[in-house]
Amino acid sequence: MIAHLRIALYLATAAVPVLPLRDGKVPFGNCRACAKNACGGRPNMKRAGTCRCTAPCHAWAAATTDRAVVTSPLWVAAWERAVCVGYHPGGAGLTVVDLDNAAAVAWAREVLPATRIVLTTRGQHWVYLGVMPSHNAVRPGVDVKSLMSYARWLGPGTGLMTDLPDAVRALAVKEETTSPRAGVVSSLPGHATWDRSVATGCRHTERYVRTGLERGLALVRARTESGAGSQAFGVARFLASQHAHCPGPCGLDAIGEEIVAAAVLVGVPEAYARRAVANGRETASGRAA
Hints:
- The protein is of the alpha+beta class and 289 residues long.
- The protein contains nine helices and nine strands.
- The strands form two sheets. Strands 5-6-4-8-7 form a five-stranded antiparallel sheet. It has a four-stranded antiparallel sheet with strand order 2-1-3-9.
């Protein structure tokens, strides 16, 4: 208990909201007054309430930097039973990419920019500066923990912490997809299409561009269950990178519109599809003409 409390006080002083975690490395259950959210929830929850419970109730929403709360009798009783210290990444302005196995770590090394790394029992936590919505299982063995979530404190880690990249934000787009409605082909009738007339400065042949685009659109359309938003991000990033050395213009806006339309076709809300495509273009290497 003393070690956990000492760590918690250290983190609270550094403006990192903390909470005790019990067996199973999960938050303590709510007290009777807060059970089944009867209290209405804490003010900082998704459905804001007026709960002022002094116990560590409501999981991540109980996380605090208030030393008086951390050392209060109810919290000390929790620390005595705690197995480790948890913290709220979003409350500290951070996002944790939780890589649960070796395959997930290998994927991150290929796709994500380097940042601070914390070793875990089975994998790694990659910690970035910046916040975003939290999502579980954005891909096999990968969770994103930031706002309205908690992570286990395993030490400060090593490496320089870098800004949250669009590549991580795009991972959450997958969970914002919906099943396409019957009879709906696209919510974007008359959307722009790519042809040579909008790519007067492109160094590639029309056949080359059109072939690559059609292959990318097929990949997006194949994601009928989930992942179409993430696929749209990847296709947009890849296609934009192909034009990094063209004098331009290359008609990337029209290419983007076709990718958005393909994502909408399989159920991605238009706003999310546009964001995924825009993020993909921004993260492409070189200049997107």
